[in-house]
Amino acid sequence: TSLPVAAALSCSFNDDALYKCGRIVKTEMEIFKADVWLAPAMNIMRDPRCGRNFEYYSEDPYITYRAAINMVIGVQDKTNIKVCLKHFACNNQENNRTHSNSVVGIRTLREIYLRGFEKVIKYAGPYALMTSYNLINGEHASSSHLLLNDILRNEFLFTGLVITDWISSGDKNNPRSINESAYASKNIKAGVNINMPGKKSDIKDIENALKSGFLTLGELKDNCSIILNKIEEVKH
Fold first, then answer.
1. How does pLDDT run across 35-92, given as a tens digit for each residue?
2. What phi and psi values does residue 136 have, to the nearest 5 degrees?
3. CA 151 → CA 12, 37, 95, distances in Å?
4. Are 126 and 83 contacting, i.e. CB atoms less than 8 angstroms apart?
5. HSE on the CB side for 166, CA within 13 Å?
6. Is 35 annotated in the active site?
7. Which of 43, 123, 147, 214 is deepest in the core (most CB within 10 A)?
8. What is the pTM assigned to this prediction?
9. Beta partners for 136?
10. Is residue 20 packed enough to be buried (19+ CB in 10 Å), middle (13-18) or exposed (0-12)?
11. Do residues 87 and 131 lie in contact, with contact meaning Cβ atoms separated by under 8 Å?
C-alpha cells in the first residue's frame, strides 16, 4: 500500500488516521514476515533541500512527536512487529551528510531536535533507534556518549536497541570533509549495539580496541546482553 508520506500525514492533524496507517504497516509486515520497520523518521525539517524531508513530519517538535506517537503505537500495538526511530539526531542536510557537523547549543538541541524522540520513547515504547550519520558539535552521533548514554539511556530511559545508519563506520574519510569517519569500537563504547550492516573491518577494529584496552570485555558483554534480550522480546 502506498501510504501518504509522513509530511502529508502530519498535515491531517488526525491521531486516528495516523494510528490506522500504523496498523496497515503492521499488517503488511506480518504478511511479508518482516520484524522491524526502519521508521518513523523524526528529524526536524530545517532546509527544503534536505533529501529526506518526505520522511519527516514537520519543522515543529510538537507536531512531529504527536504524529509519530500514534504511528508507533499503531504499528506495535498487540503484535511482535516493531519500529526503529531515526535519525538520532540533527540530520539536517543531504549534502555530505556522513561527515557534516551540526553545531547546536544544548538548549536548542533539547527543545527542538531531541524533544520528539524523548516523547515517543516515553509514550510509545519504540523497539529500536537508529543514529544519524552526521557529527554533532564535532562528534559523530553514533560515537557520542553524551547523546547515547547520558541522554538516551539515563535520562530518556530508553531500553531498546541502538543501531547505526548503513555503512557509517570505518570508511575512508570523505575528501570534502575535515571530519574523520565513525568507527565501530567508538560506537560501541558510546552505546551503539549494532553497527549496520557489519563488515570485516568493523570486527578487526573491535578486536584491536579490546587488545589496546580502549574497549573492555565487560562493555562488550553489556552491549551484547541488550541485543539478546531484545531478540527474546520479539520471539515472545
1. 999 999 999 998 887 878 889 999 999 999 999 999 999 999 999 999 999 999 998 8
2. -125, 115
3. 31, 24, 27
4. yes
5. 1
6. no
7. 147
8. 0.93
9. 102, 139
10. middle
11. yes
Dihedral Cα 157, 161, 167, 170, nearest 10 deg: 70
What's the rounded Cα separation, in Å, for the pair 165 and 182? 11
Beta-carbon contacts of residue 122 (< 8 Å; ≥ 6 apart)? 156, 157
Q: By three-state DSSP, how is residue 115 classified?
A: helix
Distance CA 109, CA 150 (A): 14
Rounded CA separation 163/159 (Å): 13
Strand partners, 161: 128
Question: Which cell numbers hold the place of 119?
Answer: 516523547
Distance of CA 112 to the CA centre of its chain: 16
The burial of 177, by beta-carbon neighbours within 10 Å (0-12 exposed, 13-18 middle, 19 or more buried), is given as middle
Q: How far apart are CA 60 and CA 64, in angstroms?
A: 6
Amino acid (1-letter code) at residue 186:
K
Q: Are the beta carbons of 125 and 168 closer than 8 angstroms? A: no
Rounded distance between C-alpha atoms, residue 42 and residue 116, angstroms: 7
Catalytic-role residue among 16, 47, 77, 165: 165
